Amino acid sequence: MSRQRSIEKIRESEYVTIGELVRLTDTRYSTLKFYTEEGMLPFKQEDTNLTRRYHREETVKRIEEIKKMRNEGMTVLQVKEALANKPY
User: Fold this and answer.
1) For residue 50, what are the domain limits?
2) In the 3-class helix/strand/coil scheme, how is 23-84 assigned residue by residue?
3) Which of 16, 28, 75, 83 qualifies as a FRET site for 68, CA 20 to 30 Å off?
4) In a domain, 53, yes or no
5) Considering the domain boundaries, does residue 14 fall inside one?
6) Lateral strand order in the sheet of 52-55
């Protein structure tokens, strides 16, 4: 039996893991990890369980926004600056 949640369950969840974001956005794990470390993807982290939880709706929108800016030729630094001026 798989430990992964079904895509339907993921789409219904308020919070998702980075692995689930990979499935939702078709973005590489390493890319999402980088965006998180660069402060571009806010998350919640419980003290006892170190799993980062991302607010699904806002984070998926944010990832799509980042992809769009990157496709338009913006550098990571430019994207970070643009995101810094936007509410999450």
Assistant:
1) 7-84
2) HHHCCCHHHHHHHHHCCCCCCEECCCCCCEEEEHHHHHHHHHHHHHHHHCCCCHHHHHHHHH
3) 16
4) yes
5) yes
6) 15-16, 52-55, 44-45
- Structural domains of the chain, count: 1
Distances from the Cα of 68 to the Cαs of 2, 3, 30, 44, in angstroms? 33, 32, 18, 25
Cut 0.85: pTM above it: yes
Amino acid at 4: Q
Tell me: the pLDDT tens digits for 55-86? 999 999 999 999 999 999 999 999 999 998 87
The CATH number of whichever domain residue 47 belongs to comes to 1.10.1660.10
